[in-house]
Specification:
- With 266 residues, the protein is of the alpha+beta class.
- The chain has 2 domains: 88 residues, Immunoglobulin-like; 127 residues, CAP (Pathogenesis-related Protein p14a), CATH 3.40.33.10.
- It contains 6 helices and 15 strands.
- The strands form 3 sheets. Strands 3, 4, 6, 7, 10 and 11 form a 6-stranded mixed sheet that branches.
């Protein structure tokens, strides 16, 4: 009996997993499947795939809500097909990643049905979203501990930037909700891309992240015992700090984010 190809489609850097034990006609339509405009999808099969076929628009495509094919780059790495947009997906638009029947493995086994993954792109962010954010007591305590480390070394203390704290909190929430721990967000990209997206302009900027520490003293101690994180805390070029703290059920329970910057003068 001919063995079907099975595969799983998952969001890169997300703990979000779609698993198909057999290749039947399936469609994933989850309103929570909202991603950033540079979303990279990885499709993992159970066998190495035919590279020429996987790169063909006949078998692997991304389509917008009008059914029009969107240009994407497809990279084949054995049993994985990585799909990356050439340019950003449109904010607020809906798309489908389509794997069509007939796609073959290196040994000629083929998928038996077409499978689609539906996703939509977040609405474009506005700096106004962060207006009025009030840093929590823990977030303010992190600033106090950071400034204590700076002042005892003769370095100017940092000012709390409430909007930047709102952004740091949003990054922490993104890590908690999407089950990842990385400077690069699957939703917003790098810290610098995220800052730009929310309207921040700066001369220089940096980010520290941590997870699992139970209070401000513990997290600042962890950062100060790490060369790279300590360098950000004691960087004389930074003038402002945003702090985000998120406590939520998940892999680490607590997430901490520091965003440093020296704003660009208008």
């Amino acid at each position: 009996m001919k063995k079907n190809i099975t595969y799983a489609c998952f969001a890169l850097l997300l703990g979000f997993l779609l698993s198909y034990q057999t290749v039947d006609a399936e469609s994933w339509n989850d309103e929570k499947n909202v991603v950033g405009p540079n979303k990279v999808w990885t499709v993992t099969f159970n066998v190495p795939m035919n590279e020429e076929m996987a790169k063909s628009i006949e078998y692997v495509t991304v389509e917008n809500s009008q059914g029009k094919t969107v240009p994407v780059k497809k990279q084949v790495e054995g049993d994985k097909v990585i799909v990356t947009p050439f340019s950003e997906y449109d904010y607020g638009e809906s798309y489908q990643l389509v794997i069509r029947k007939g796609l073959e493995s290196e040994k000629g086994k083929s998928t038996q049905e077409t499978v689609t993954l539906s996703f939509s792109i977040q609405e474009e962010n506005s700096p106004k979203e962060l207006s009025g954010y009030e840093p929590s007591a823990y977030e303010r305590e992190v600033l106090q501990l950071v400034n204590k480390e700076r002042t005892k070394r003769g370095i100017q203390p940092l000012d709390m930037n409430s909007k930047l704290s709102g952004l740091a909190h949003k990054k922490g929430l993104d890590m908690a909700e999407n089950n990842y721990f990385s400077h690069t967000s699957p939703t917003y990209g790098s810290p610098f891309e995220m800052m730009k997206e929310f309207g921040f302009t700066y001369v220089t900027a940096g980010e520290n992240i941590a997870a699992g520490q139970h209070d401000p003293e513990a997290v600042v101690s962890s950062w100060m015992n790490s060369d790279g994180h300590r360098a950000n805390i004691l960087n004389e070029n930074f003038t402002e700090l945003g702090v985000g703290y998120v406590q939520q059920d998940g892999r680490y329970a607590s997430y901490w984010v520091q965003l440093f910057m020296k704003p660009k003068s208008n």
